[in-house]
Specification:
single chain, about 270 residues, alpha/beta, Cobalt-precorrin-4 Transmethylase, domain 1, Methyltransferase, Cobalt-precorrin-4 Transmethylase, Domain 2, five-stranded mixed beta sheet, three-stranded parallel beta sheet, 8 strands
C-alpha cells in the first residue's frame, strides 16, 4: 500500500520510490494518471487498473500474481489507498488468504488539512464524501450533529456550496470551518471562518469554488455548555460588548473559573445571534 502525493510530487517518500521501482506490478486506480507520476521519477513498471467498479475482479488477478511469488504495489490517484479511494476490498481479500499487507505512510489530504486547522479538540471523525443527494446529505449531517470530535469531509467542487449550506442549516452557523482547497498545489488555499461566513467567502471569489476540497468543521459543544451558570454568562456578555472575542473569553475564564472551551463556544453563539 503506497501513499502518493496529493499534489506536489516532491512529497513522495524515498521508500515509496524504492518500492515502485522494485515491484513486479503496480495496481493503480487510473493507470494513465499514475503513468505521469512514474514518468516524472523515471520509473518503468507494469501496471494493472484497479478501481471502484472492478476491484474484486482485478483483485483476484492480483492475488493470483501474489500467490505465484510476484510483488505488487497498490496506489490510488493521490494520497493513501483505501481512504475514500479503492484499496480496502483488495486488502480484505489478501488478508483473508493470509497474504502479507505492508502499508507505506505518506500523504493524506484529511490529515494534512487537520494539521493546519488549529482546532484544539483532541479527536476527529473522518467521514469522507457526504451523499450527493441533498436530502440524504442532510440526514447524514443530522446523524453527526451531536458529535463532539472535529468532522472531516471531502467534497467535489460542483457540490461544495450546497454541502456547506446544508452544514449551516443542520449544524448551525456558529461553528468554525476550515476550507482547505487544492492542498500542496499551486493555488492551495486554507481559510478558517464561522460556517455562516463560508458561503459568502466562496461566492465572493469563484476561484475558491474550484479544485479538490477538505472541509473541517468543529464538533458539537460538550454537554457541559448547558451548565454555564448565570454569573459566567453575565460576565461573558459584558466583556464581549467591550473586547474582542478571544480576549473576552480568556478574561471570563479567569474571572469565573468556567471552562474556556465552553465559554468560547457560548461566545460564538452569542456573536452569531447578535
Amino acid at each position: 500500500m503506497v501513499a502518493t502525493p496529493i499534489g506536489n510530487l516532491q512529497d513522495i517518500s524515498l521508500r515509496a520510490l524504492e518500492v515502485l521501482k522494485s515491484v513486479d506490478t503496480i495496481a493503480a486506480e487510473d493507470t494513465r494518471h499514475t503513468a505521469h507520476l512514474l514518468t516524472h521519477f523515471g520509473i518503468k513498471a507494469k501496471m494493472i487498473a484497479l478501481y471502484e467498479h472492478n476491484e474484486r475482479r482485478a483483485g483476484q488477478k492480483i492475488l493470483d500474481a501474489l500467490h505465484s511469488g510476484q510483488s505488487v504495489a497498490l496506489v490510488s490517484d493521490a494520497g493513501t489507498p483505501g481512504i475514500s479511494d479503492p484499496g480496502a476490498v483488495l486488502v480484505g481479500m489478501a488478508r483473508d488468504v493470509g497474504i502479507n499487507v505492508v502499508p507505506l505512510p505518506g500523504a493524506c489530504a484529511a490529515v494534512t488539512a487537520l494539521s493546519a486547522a488549529g482546532f484544539e479538540h483532541p479527536h476527529f471523525l473522518f467521514y469522507g464524501f457526504l451523499p450527493a443527494s441533498g436530502a440524504q446529505r442532510r440526514r447524514a449531517l443530522e446523524g453527526l450533529r451531536e458529535q463532539e470530535a472535529v468532522l472531516v469531509f471531502y467534497e467535489a467542487p460542483h457540490r461544495v456550496l450546497e454541502s456547506v449550506q446544508d452544514m449551516v442549516d443542520v449544524l448551525g452557523g456558529a461553528r468554525r470551518i476550515l476550507v482547505a482547497r487544492e492542498l500542496t498545489k499551486t493555488f492551495e488555499t486554507l481559510h478558517r471562518c464561522a460556517l455562516q461566513e463560508a458561503i459568502g467567502w466562496m461566492q465572493a471569489d469563484p476561484n475558491q469554488q474550484r479544485g479538490e476540497f477538505v472541509l473541517l468543521v468543529e464538533g458539537a459543544a460538550p454537554p457541559a455548555q448547558n451548565d454555564v451558570n448565570d454569573e459566567a454568562q453575565r460576565v461573558l456578555r459584558l466583556l464581549l460588548d467591550e473586547l474582542p472575542l478571544k480576549q473576552a473569553v480568556k478574561l471570563a475564564t479567569d474571572i469565573t473559573g468556567a471552562k474556556k472551551n465552553v465559554l468560547y463556544q457560548l461566545a460564538l453563539e452569542l456573536k452569531s445571534n447578535g
